[in-house]
Amino acid sequence: MVDLKKRRRKPIRRLNNAMKKRTIFACAFIALLFVILIGRLVYFSVFKNNIYKRQVLSQQNYSSETLPYKRGDILDRDGNILATSQKMYTLILEPKNILRSDKIQKETINALHKYMKIDKDELLKFIKKHKNSYYSVYKDELAYSDIADLKDFIASDKADNVSGIVFSEKYKRRYPNQSLASQVIGFVSDGTIGTGGIEQYYNSTLSGVNGRKYKYLNEELEQDNSIVEPENGQTVVSTLDSNIQKLAEKELAKFEKKYGSKGSSILVMNPNNGEIYAMANSTSYNLESPRDDKNLLKKYSQSQINNMSEKQKTKAFNEIWKNPIVSNAFEPGSTYKPFTVAAGLEEGILKGNETFYCDGYQKVGPHTIHCSHRNGHGLITLSQSISLSCNDALMQIAEKEGKNVFAKYQRNFNFGKKTGIDLPGEAQTASLLHDAKDMTAADLATSSFGQSFNCSMIQMASAFSSLINGGYYYKPHVVKQLRSSSGEVVSNIEPTMVKQTVSKETSDKLKKYMKETVESGTGTKAKMKDYSAGGKTGTAQKIPRSAGTYIVSFCGFAPAENPQVLVYVVIDEIQKESQTNTGLAVEVAKNVLKGSLKELNVPKSNKK
């Protein structure tokens, strides 16, 4: 038999000379590459080490710091500061750097003690407690005067062994007058969010953009900085006059101390362009500490505050912070009567020589609606219907006009619509204004003397201004100019004339009628020695009528012939006097009018 194993055996192939040469060449080439690679590594790590180390390190950001922008100031019309931002500093320690050596520790602590009067033992205790930290806040809200000496020392060549001290910057909102015009100005929450007033409405204008400071090592392995400068906010110049505002608040405080009320407000404005000089409310608060419970004491007792839940307290603060002159609506009462007369004069329904007989009431369908003078005024003229504030005569006038004419002029005077004032939270109140198609005879009668519909103080004052300035309705506003952080004028906010409500002829007649109100009617307490004045008193019975509670008011102006100042006073539920005593509102208005005219250097009237 044939051996199969032998038949399957294959001869062993051996390398020939050519193959040996190729193998040796390949191995040698690979070995050479390794030698070159090792050589390059040695070259880069030994000979080029410093160059490449500098290049790499110069591209690495080791830290960055926010550079805060300064929020824009709020000024009054004369440039006095109402709100500003003060730069504050936070002392930050780096314990791990301070503890690098005994010498650094000693000299750093000595410097902090010498220039900032910080106790050495307390410092050492703090540093050791945070020994592994590179960032530990030691003290904040420091003024520049608190840190100036230490900063100067650190910048000198005597502080080589002082380490681990950093000052970060931020701005804190300051209100030099604390509670002055609080609801008009508003305050800032969380450092950047305006809450209420100008701070809220002009928040984006007052805000800026933060900058940034980067620290890194350059090619020379030296620390270098790169700075993106912050963009500061713009300055807002308001129409407010600080002295008139102080006067109005002083008069309110005197009234509240003597008589008390559920709430009282004063609005002072220029009737010729819509600029607001002052807005004062009995519920002002401290802008420096808006969330302090002490602010609530103007409206609540201490026991009421103590019993409030957090939710109730938040609601109470919101009530204090809002501006009732803009946000609250009420029945205006007899201050509306000149508007009813104006509609009749404009439409030719009234000529100015009419007389009316007041017997103390008017029958309107099933209703008997009384005049404020229960025994009746008797026979009176058109001007006396305003000066004596006769409800009966006004109801007769409204009946002559009819609901279509009456409703048309209510809308024309902008009642039921927002004025567009540059403040947040303006009341709409349109839902409480009757349309002609829905107005009943009783609605027409009561609306003629300012009941059965609502308005806000800013709506009334803006419309009233058009009655006495020749018939021009101006949009009310509290800001007149915007400036850059360097003081350059960015834009002027010019007065906006919205519409003409009545003719100059009608306006002149109404000024005459309302001057008579002060000379011989319901507003005689507004008489002044050096100025002629006009105005209209108001008494509105609150709902429910059965409660017997009232709002009294007076809208006055001077000089009567060429009004330069309008003052509107509203008092809700007088506490220590008759709630229908409009004379108290007139007295307050007179004092504010007199002081405002003096402050604005208005020439004295040529009284006859």
From TrEMBL:
Q: Which residues form the Penicillin-binding protein dimerisation domain?
A: 70-218
Does the record carry Membrane as a key word? yes
Q: Which InterPro entries match?
A: Beta-lactam/transpept, Beta-lactam/transpept-like, PBP_dimer, PBP_dimer_sf, PCN-bd_Tpept
Q: Which keywords, in A-to-Z order, does the entry hold?
A: Membrane
Domain Penicillin-binding protein transpeptidase: start-end pairs: 265-593
Q: Where is the protein localized? A: Membrane
What is the protein's major site of localization? membrane
Give the similarity note.
Belongs to the transpeptidase family.
Q: Give the protein name, as stated in the record.
A: Penicillin-binding transpeptidase domain-containing protein
The scientific name of the source species is Anaerostipes amylophilus
